């Protein structure tokens, strides 16, 4: 029997280091593991090497059965490319005028600044894939939201919209970016109405979308982020320590995270250069990897108090990093729609977690029952210091039963377990149901 063919549209895909690639990689891998032919349509990796960096080790995590089709950006990433040899005279002499020209050009075919320019080359590539081997299902991961426009270019082929974020509103501030009666609001309503389904990373975003577009609520599904076991993933050894080593891993959204409050709280919990605690931060300092001098200065001055920044880390070395620390720091932006891409991965480590974020965040629902959770009650330095001290006390007097329970709790967030049932439903949608063993069919007529 032939395999169903999935066309997966992911603007960012390994070796890109954009934060979205982890969910995209896991979804594509899960379909391949389930027996689908998977073709990924993505941005040319040479462009990623110019704008935010690449990680070849991350590319090794992609299932080798997956076919990857790289597409030119159509000019969408030109503002982010810093090669002076590419600069036009207009860009050099009137950069603001040039940027506005590029913004408007990007919106000609799709209402999204700059990224709209990807619609034409990506749609052309999608049609070529379909002509070569008919596509049974399209899945588009956003942002950028132009991926949803590309998903609709194959007439008669069902498509799924995967919202890693929200198009209509800011998930951090909650501010509306456009209303349902606007051009984009009407377009989004049409996309959702004609889609075979839509995925959201948490209940809060899904519920907000259901209230905005109630006619499509029945096909909206929560498919939360999970963790992808990396080489070395194992239950942590219980180490009694009076000198705790805390770790943070992830992109530091410095502007939105409560970093200043954390630093003050750390100074209260572990004062002076003779502090017995240390904290190491790994990851990019922004989505692009660039950071202002004030950010670097912050870490430079904090190093006297046991805090260090040691740069980005390859996804394939993540387990080794977790094995080198005693507890984890979870700093998140404030917002009821914020889960945080690292939350499930943190839980899966079985390590103590100190939460430094608004407890109204969506992440709290995942963490609430975790046995080794130490939340700051609010974002005051005193509350943050108390959470750090409570965690340090637990590390000095560990309870093996609690650690065992924490490990067991975290393993239920494996992304494979989350994706298996929804992929099974999509097999039914495209007419390729799971083939059950004959004995099972006889017992379940």
Set out the fold topology.
Layout: E1 5-10, H1 21-33, E2 37-43, H2 45-51, H3 56-59, E3 67-71, H4 89-93, H5 95-106, H6 119-132, E4 137-142, H7 146-151, E5 159-163, H8 183-194, E6 197-200, H9 203-212, E7 220-222, E8 245-249, H10 259-269, E9 278-282, H11 293-302, E10 307-309, H12 318-323, E11 327-331, H13 343-349, E12 353-356, H14 363-367, E13 373-375, H15 381-396, H16 400-411, H17 415-429, H18 438-443
Parallel strand pairs: 1-2, 1-4, 2-3, 4-5, 5-6, 6-7, 8-9, 8-11, 9-10, 11-12, 12-13
And the CATH topology of the largest domain?
Answer: Rossmann fold
**Number of E-state strands:** 13
- Please outline the major beta sheet: 7 strands, parallel
Give the assembly state of these chains. Answer: single chain
Strand content: 5-15%
Radius of gyration: 23 Å
Low-confidence stretches: 438-443
- Taken from the alpha-carbon principal axes, the silhouette is globular
- Cα distance spanning the termini: 22 Å
CATH A-level architecture of the largest domain: 3-Layer(aba) Sandwich
Overview of the molecule:
With 445 residues, the protein is α/β, with parallel strands linked by helices. The protein folds into two domains: 175 residues, Rossmann fold; 167 residues, Glycogen Phosphorylase B (Rossmann fold). The protein has 18 helices and 13 strands. The strands form two sheets. A seven-stranded parallel sheet has the order 3-2-1-4-5-6-7, sandwiched between helices. It has a six-stranded parallel sheet with strand order 10-9-8-11-12-13, with helices on both faces. Strand 11, helix 13 and strand 12 form a beta-alpha-beta unit. The longest helix is centred in the C-terminal third of the chain and has 16 residues. The two termini are 22 Å apart.
